[in-house]
Amino acid sequence: MSNFKTGGPFVTRFAPSPTGGLHLGNVRTAILNHLLARQSGGKFLLRLEDTDQERSTFAAEAAILWSMSWLGLVPDEPVRHQSLRLHLYRRAVDGLVAEDRAYPCFCTDAELDQDRKEAAARNLPPRYSGRCARMSREERTERLNRGDAHALRFRLPEKPEVSFKDLIKGQIALPAGAFGDFVLLRSSGWPSYNLAVVVDDADMGVNLVLRGEDHLTNTARQILLYDALGLTAPAFAHHGLLMDTDGKKLSKRSGALSIPECMEMGLEPLAVVQYLASLSGALPTKNLFASLDEMARAFNPFALGRGNAVMSLDELTALSARVFRAADPAEQVRQLDETLPAESAWHEFDPQVRLHLLASLRENAANLHELRALLPLFTEKEARFTSGALTELAGSLPVLVALDQAMSTHSPDSRLDKDAAGAVLRGTGEKAGAKGRKLYHPIRLALTGSENGPELATLLTLLPAGLIRERVQTVLNIFSHCNHKE
Predict the structure, then answer these.
(1) Per-residue pLDDT averaged across 23-32, rounded?
(2) Is residue 267 within 8 Å of 327, Cβ to Cβ?
(3) Which of 39, 386, 439, 460 has the fewest CB atoms found within 10 Å of its own CB?
(4) Which strands sit side by side in the sheet containing 208-212, from one edge to the other?
(5) Chain segment 98-132, per-residue pLDDT in tens
(6) Torsion (CA) 413, 418, 423, 425 in degrees, nearest 10
(7) pTM
(8) Which of 41, 42, 39 lies closest to 13 in space, CA to CA?
(9) Assign residue 453 a region: left if phi > 0, alpha if psi is -120 to 50, beta otherwise?
(10) Domain 1-77+193-327 part of CATH 3.30.565.10
(11) Are 428 and 380 in contact (CB under 8 A)?
């Protein structure tokens, strides 16, 4: 039997249903499949399981494809749609019917619902009673000739259990009695999940199915189908599930964070991929990776944990901030160039000034959204002041007067270097007789209207000397006007 070391190159797949967007719970499976395929030199495939005619939508399909692209999880072959492969499923079932491995089921929804209720009353799992499996050939032929609506069910072989080696969990054995004869084709002619998966995985050359442990029973059904269809089953590996802090499985219904929501929050796609992969134990958590290829080289499938993993949004956002601050600043400048309004003063700055401004500000931001919110401090002529800031500034006017005088020797269009900024601060402090917070805080408030931001010496290098004087003089004029009125 193959394992993660001997079984590659692996052809893996991710197969979501376009009934909603991707969320952190199911996209984790896509990430693990992508990294394993890349790590082993194989292929990563994408299939849309769009056989739910009532719930599948083109909007959900577009959202899935956009989310995958944003994360960098690009498949190696064109995307497959199950809705375009119905002839393959019909052909497979016809062969099973010819060998008496499948049979028509004429049970109505009401009859099946009653069977489920009776099983629940006896504390038994729901399973098909086998009513139509025992139907005589004559009655079956008569009802088919009459055109009665029917599904096609798989006839379970008489074997006590289905066993297989799971590459993560080890040897698995499930009693065949855990489920009854299951549907292959619905009365509409559309396939069931298990039939379509088996036919598609075999047709696409998938040799490893890596998915959540909630599919273990499906795996048993599928192994029986592979055997009945004369197909070679792939290797299987079932990872633990992703849980919230309350111990509940993350899912669309439980309100798991969606990938579009991750985009809106400003999370870095590389951080999302690394965090979800590291929760499985197969990727280091301390290192930062510059690309998915780099992650794939570090990916260790042998370390995939058997247990469930707990999702922490705080940990994800902290990792995203680290990735953001370590990213290529030139690329981030390009993103700002493309997204900021054409009338923004940002576009008037020299390219080197834009690069210096971004590199300095991103230490005070966790993502590009937060950094963009800091830009008006440097692109707008005036700062905005709260009543609390004005109250503090009223008692610090000597500091601002001294700063204005210190800046008067610098050309309005020039920017201070760090040495000059340090000299200005020292001279201002000496002239005003202030140091520490009494020196730094009023200067920060006057220049930005905010208590937070870059280190003050850095702030002085980011603003043109003329703008520094304008903002300082604006504050001085406010209080000069007040004093004049009194």
Answers:
(1) 94
(2) no
(3) 386
(4) 170-175, 161-166, 235-239, 208-212
(5) 999 999 999 999 999 998 898 888 888 888 888 99
(6) 90
(7) 0.88
(8) 42
(9) left
(10) no
(11) no
Q: Residue 239 pairs with which residues in a beta bridge?
A: 212
Query: pLDDT band for position 3 (50/70/90)?
Result: low
CB 174 within 8 A of CB 207: no
Strands across the sheet containing 43-48: 11-14, 43-48, 80-81
Query: Would you kindly state where each structural domain of the chain is located, as residue ranges?
Result: 1-77+193-327, 329-379, 387-485
Provide CB contacts within 8 A for 415, sequence distance 6+. Answer: 353, 461, 462, 463, 464, 465
The structure tokens 């849309």 sit at 48
Beta-strand relationship, 11-14 and 161-166: unpaired
Across residues 383-389, what is the average pLDDT?
83
CB 258 within 8 A of CB 6: no
Pick left, alpha or beta for residue 266 (phi over 0 → left; psi -120 to 50 → alpha; otherwise beta): left
**What does 377-419 look like in DSSP terms, one character per residue?**
HHHSSS----HHHHHHHHT-HHHHHHHHHHHTTS-TT----HH
Residue located via tokens 């959202």: 63
pLDDT range class, residue 284, cuts 50, 70, 90? confident
Q: Is the pLDDT of residue 253 over 70?
A: no
**Cα separation, 27 vs 47, whole angstroms:** 14
Backbone dihedral angles phi then psi of residue 174, each to the nearest 5 degrees: -120, 135
CA 283, CA 310: separation in Å to the nearest integer? 16
Beta bridge partners of 81: 48
Structure tokens at 41: 């030199």
For 81, the 3-state DSSP assignment is: strand
3-state secondary structure of 435: coil
The percent of the chain in helix, strand and coil, each rounded to the nearest 5, is: 55, 10, 35
The Cα–Cα gap between 465 and 468 comes to: 5
DSSP notation for 232-248: PPPEEEEEPPEE-TTSP
Cis peptide before 376 (omega within 30 of 0): no
- Structure confidence at residue 391 as a pLDDT band (50, 70, 90): confident
Residues 6 or more apart whose CB falls under 8 angstroms from that of 118 comprise: none
**DSSP string of 128-195?**
---TGGG--HHHHHHHHHHT---EEEE---S-SEEEEEETTTEEEEEEGGGS-S-EEE-TTSPBPHHH
**Residue 422 main-chain phi, psi, to 5 deg:** -60, -40
Q: Which CATH number fits domain 387-485: 3.30.70.100, 3.30.70.1520, 1.10.10.350, 3.10.310.50?
A: 1.10.10.350
User: In which residue are the tokens 């029917």 written?
Assistant: 150
Q: Which amino acid is at 325?
A: R
